[in-house]
């Protein structure tokens, strides 16, 4: 079985080959959210093997509420070892260094705990409402600065839904929809303005994604403030938006009282 270092080298070779254009892409969008994507990241046969070893829906944990409806997996020793290898390949120093260089951000750190990372699966009807990610790591010591999403479901098309939406002009304007295309890596900045979502899956298929976050001692935006994962409704969802605002205020209030939350977030890899 291929090991994480070998996968990391493959990732770094692809990023290096497109480094100049990726730098330009990130720079063009840096004043709003900051993102870029890379197609054909890894050899096709390897990505198919990764996909074939994804857990079944029944082997994951469902996250279902007014905010979201999806499935996640993060206790990686329960699943095929290839999945852990590919996740941690993105945390190899050579990959982290390249992403840092492309985005022009120093002192970026990976997260071996997979706090809110790991595997994400979305079946027909699943979705993720517009939101900004929690600003910090599990110990509230480091700032979350980058979100890495690697899609592995073969033949995924725009019309399938389940695609990433980013809202660089805010929720009052139309989002940019980026297809969750097979063998595509999307990297986006995370901060108080980086609203993003996943539209509803329409196909009778499962969209599979390998997810990582990077952190830093400094926020990506210097004027950023601590915030919980904050959800909103879409522009047409006035009632949902109202309820989500109440939900955000309630959860934010709790965090002012309980700095690290009432309970430890279970979404992390307990080794």
Strand content: 15-25%
Low-pLDDT runs: none
Could you spell the SSE succession in H and E letters? HHEHEEHHEEEEEEEEEH
Task: Tell me the number of strands.
Answer: 12
- The CATH class name reads Mainly Beta
Number of domains: 1
Give the name of the CATH superfamily.
q2cbj1_9rhob like domain
Please name the CATH topology: Jelly Rolls
N-end to C-end Cα span: 21 Å
Structural class: alpha+beta
Looking at the structure, what is the overall shape? globular
Annotated CATH architecture = Sandwich
Average pLDDT over all residues: 94
SSE blueprint and pairings:
Layout: H1 4-17, H2 19-29, E1 35-39, H3 44-52, E2 61-64, E3 68-73, H4 81-89, H5 93-103, E4 118-122, E5 127-132, E6 143-151, E7 164-166, E8 176-178, E9 184-189, E10 196-198, E11 207-216, E12 230-231, H6 238-257
Antiparallel strand pairs: 1-9, 2-3, 3-4, 3-5, 4-11, 5-10, 5-12, 6-9, 6-11, 7-8, 7-10
Helix pairs in contact: 1-4, 1-5, 2-5
């Amino acid at each position: 079985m291929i090991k994480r270092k070998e996968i990391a080298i493959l990732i770094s070779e692809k990023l290096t080959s497109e480094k100049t254009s990726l730098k330009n892409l990130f720079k063009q969008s840096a004043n709003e959210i900051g993102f870029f994507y890379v197609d054909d990241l890894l050899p096709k046969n390897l990505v198919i093997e990764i996909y074939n070893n994804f857990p079944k829906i029944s082997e994951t944990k469902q996250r279902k509420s007014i905010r979201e409806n999806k499935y996640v997996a993060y206790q990686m020793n329960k699943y095929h070892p290839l999945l852990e290898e590919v996740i941690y390949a993105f945390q190899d120093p050579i990959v982290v260094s390249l992403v840092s260089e492309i985005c022009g951000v120093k002192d970026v750190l990976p997260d071996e705990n997979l706090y809110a990372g790991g595997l994400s699966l979305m079946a027909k009807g699943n979705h993720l409402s517009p939101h900004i990610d929690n600003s910090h790591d599990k110990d509230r010591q480091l700032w979350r600065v980058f979100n890495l999403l690697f899609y592995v479901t073969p033949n995924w098309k725009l019309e399938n839904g389940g695609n990433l939406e980013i809202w660089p002009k805010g929720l009052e304007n139309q989002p940019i929809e980026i297809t969750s295309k097979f063998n595509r890596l999307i990297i986006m900045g995370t901060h108080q303005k980086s609203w993003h979502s996943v539209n509803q899956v329409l196909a009778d298929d499962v969209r599979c994604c390998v997810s990582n976050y990077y952190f830093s001692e400094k926020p990506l935006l210097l004027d950023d403030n601590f915030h919980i994962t904050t959800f909103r409704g879409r522009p047409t969802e006035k009632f949902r938006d109202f309820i989500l605002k109440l939900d955000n205020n309630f959860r934010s209030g709790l965090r002012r009282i309980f700095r690290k939350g009432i309970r430890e977030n279970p979404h992390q890899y307990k080794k």
